[in-house]
Amino acid sequence: MKINIMLNGRPRTFEVGPDDYLLDTLRNHHLYSVRKGCDSSNCGICTILMDGKPVLSCSILSVRADGHAFTTVEGIAEEADQISDYFGDEGADQCGFCNIGMALLAYTMKRDNVEPTEEAIRHHLAGNLCRCSGYQAQVKAIKRYMEAKR
Ligand code: FES
Ligand code: FES
Questions:
Q1: What is the mean pLDDT of residues 12-40?
Q2: pTM higher than 0.85, yes or no?
């Protein structure tokens, strides 16, 4: 069947199967910024925004995406560049595999005016796993990004 979605502000139509998940549909259409980790709703690596809210693209059937608006990191390119600079400054860039999901979460925290405390940031990052770090560098980087934007 065909689904019609808004992707990063542009209308897109995709042909999908009944058991396809959005993660694969997007990657099959060259959106490789949407990363595949556990593929079982456990790591947060595949996070994107659905109607502005963070979701796990590996857990959304593509047919259920019909009619909704999605944002990947390409849709917040300018903010993502700034977040990436803070990640670099704080040494949060190790393998970088988790950074895109975390950047989308950082963006939504700033957009929603979340208090930039370590506790609040850790709460929002819960479920987004990083295999390389103890999260300290990411939390510091996101805190600085959010504080600079207030
Ligand atoms: S790939 Fe979706 S949560 Fe891990
Ligand atoms: S920096 Fe490697 S998984 Fe987070």
A1: 97
A2: yes
